[in-house]
Amino acid sequence: MNSITTKISILAGVALLAAGCAQAPEEVHYTDYVNTSIGTGGHGHVFVGANVPFGLVQLGPTSIPQSWDWVSGYHESDSTVIGFSHTHLSGTGIGDLFDVTVMPVTGEVSYARGTEDDPQSGLWSYADRSKEVSRPGYYSVPLTRYGINAELTSTARVGLHRYTFPASDNAAIVFDLENGGCWDKATEVHIEAVGNNRVSGWRYSEGWANDQKIFFTAEFSKPFDSFEITGENGMYARASFKSTEGEQVMLKVALSPVSIEGAEANMKAELPGWDFEATAKAADIAWNKELSKINIKTADEQAREIFYTAMYHTMVAPSLFCDVNGDYRGADGKMHKNEGFTNYTTFSLWDTYRAAMPLMTIIHPEKMNDMVNTMIHIWKQQGKLPVWHLMGCETDCMVGNPGIPPVADAILKGYDGFDRNLALQAMKESALRPDRGQDLRMKYGYIPCNLFNESVAYDMEYAIADWALAQAAKELGDEETYNHFLERSRSYKNFFDPSTGFMRGKDDKGKFRTPFSPFASTHRADDYCEGNAWQYTWLVPHDFQGLVDCFGSKEAFLKKLDSLFEADSDLEGGNTSPDISGLIGQYAHGNEPSHHILYFYTMAGQPWKTADRVREVLAHLYHDAPDGLSGNEDVGQMSAWYILSSLGFYQAEPAGGRYWFGTPLFDKAEIKTAGGIFTVIAENNSEENRYIQKVTLNGQEYNKPYIEFKDINAGGELRFTMGNEKEVCWY
Questions:
Q1: 492-528 pLDDT, tens per residue?
Q2: How far apart are the first and last CA of the chain?
Q3: Known Gene3D superfamilies for this protein (predicted)?
Q4: How far apart are CA 596 and CA 429, in angstroms?
Q5: Which of 106, 239, 259, 365 could disulfide-link to 168, CB 3.0 to 4.6 Å?
């Protein structure tokens, strides 16, 4: 195994000097702190390659394996490369995309993915990972089979390649339209030469996204001598030329979800020339600008690296899904002209509604209206808000109605660059659709376990969404809708068994499923989803007092909550969910339904226990190493938890903007918000002094256990006085 080379600095000041201004000596180069190897081992599933924040293009290497740990196309344990693909996923549990794969070669090759046991099979080559360079917006690696050094950078919609060839009479760049990612299968492809230095085409495929269409145009810096469509069913094309020793040949590939003409316009607008260095510098500047939205002060270099890598991971997606003129392909499969907003895709909402989207409301206010408008238009086109939306396709992956909380949250936080009443209608219609178990829920008041798989998980997630919807309805003055969905949000109580103290599956006769063990898990084939009763018993972030009441008293609730972290970490069952990871007792930080639980202690009046557990997770379940995440990155959610929690607060509830206090990790953090700079200061902070003793907001004593979004958004100063005394409660 070889680890990725990281933190390769651009010469100080070069980027801004290129833009015509001098760099101040004290200016921080945040991209230097990003370690792109974090999450490439274990089950992190992160993307490695060249992209810009929230770009359509994620240009990076794709490896031979198509199993679970290669759903991003890359794993630190493997150094095979079948080519460099222009779309990738980051941190997901299912694989797809890898569209328009390009491989530089010399000599004759076989046109196939190939197998590692036959070095001459397919196009693939080993990559020399000892010479690999990866930093935000730039990637390079030598391909040992061909003696070619590959370099990649990108704009939002265009990937730029630079290949350094050996001397060869039979050099070529091959386009592979066959091999996608894991579940993906090409259904129709087209590629044709346009003159002797340009090719265009499209790739249609089905997989996780069941009807994906991507169009492209590519231009060579050097004319090709011949162009051949080859391989089975014409899935490959070879552009051949002669090369001299050390000759650099560049290729730029523009993507469009709409048309070849759209791809051509994207290239003309974003990358008309051939300046590789300037493009890489521009990508670095774009990343630096986004990463600078939070400036932390700390002596802990490891924590700084983890923090800014986490920031980086949260900005791979959602990704652009429109042309430079605003045209896009909708959820109805139709092409839509610019409708006045920027369209996005890759909405992993079951994960990201919990922390990644609440983080976005703070540091990316300029994107929030576009995000919500995208979701509203998805509802218009498919009849419901997105569940897990990918490249214009609804995958219906995961449980509940995860598109509702971020829309409600935006309304409650005062965002208004969209039709708020239409957004409420979209939420209501999504919540009242008689599908995905909602018909049973409306009939019985809960989803019976004998009539629907993962019934507890679906119902409890629907309850969370109902609560968020109710709060938005109240904000917009719709009391009838508020009352209806607030009542529905309590459906979780049907599953609570007071005799065991766990949420359990209940059949249509009102009887709990037997036999029962809270440690049992059967992956995607029981009453829970990627979890067990230990984890799902706490999936009530929207109704803390209601959950406490289930246990009869706060004391009983806290005793049970303590036992979650003290329980044996073993799981029962022959096919337990691999997503139940990052275990402390039966608390599973590696999967999203657990992410709010630590903050229940603060809600229950024992904030020192939140501090203990948050520091434990920050210190032991996040590392500056390839296996540095305790579960899938999940399109930014795992990292967003780290970002918010290390700042000292977390939005435990699904919407509304109360960020509950935990324990700040850094001495100082400056957060750029819509209203100014919100500064978080932790006085006397250390590993021992991790407990909040006192809080002030803008110099005034503050006696709430949370900070509200409106106060963060306005800018100002939140000051924590830290100490080593437990059982100090300032509220």
A1: 999 999 999 999 999 999 999 999 999 999 999 999 9
A2: 51
A3: 2.70.98.10, alpha-1,2-mannosidase, alpha-1,2-mannosidases domains, GH92 mannosidase domain
A4: 27
A5: 106
**Listing from the earlier edge strand, what are the strands of the sheet with 388-390?**
347-348, 388-390, 393-394
Q: How far apart are CA 5 and CA 152, in angstroms?
A: 15
The CA distance from 304 to 307, in Å, is 5
Say yes or no to pLDDT of 604 above 70: yes
- Length of the chain, please? 731
- Please answer whether residues 634 and 311 qualify as being in contact, where contact means their C-beta atoms are separated by less than 8 angstroms: no
pLDDT at 17: 32
Answer yes or no: are the C-beta atoms of 605 and 364 closer than 8 Å. Answer: no
Q: Which amino acid is at 496?
A: F
Contacts of residue 77, Cβ cutoff 8 Å, sequence gap at least 6: 1, 41, 69
pLDDT for 369-391, tens place per residue? 999 999 999 999 999 999 999 99
Give the residue from 714, 594, 726, 729 showing the smallest Cα distance to 661.
729
Distance (Å) of CA 286 to CA 153, 210, 293, 360: 12, 32, 12, 17
Alpha-carbon gap, residue 717 to 681, rounded angstroms: 8
Evaluate whether 257 touches 108 at the Cβ level (below 8 Å). no
- Going from the C-alpha of 64 to that of each of 45, 50, 142, 505, the distances in angstroms are 15, 19, 17, 41
Give the global pTM: 0.95
Q: What is the DSSP string of 64-133?
A: S--SGGGTTS--TT--EESEEES---SS-SS-----SEEEEEES---SS---TT-TTSSS-EEB-GGG-E
Question: Could you report the per-residue pLDDT of 36-77, keeping only the tens digit for each?
Answer: 999 999 999 999 999 999 999 999 999 999 999 999 999 999
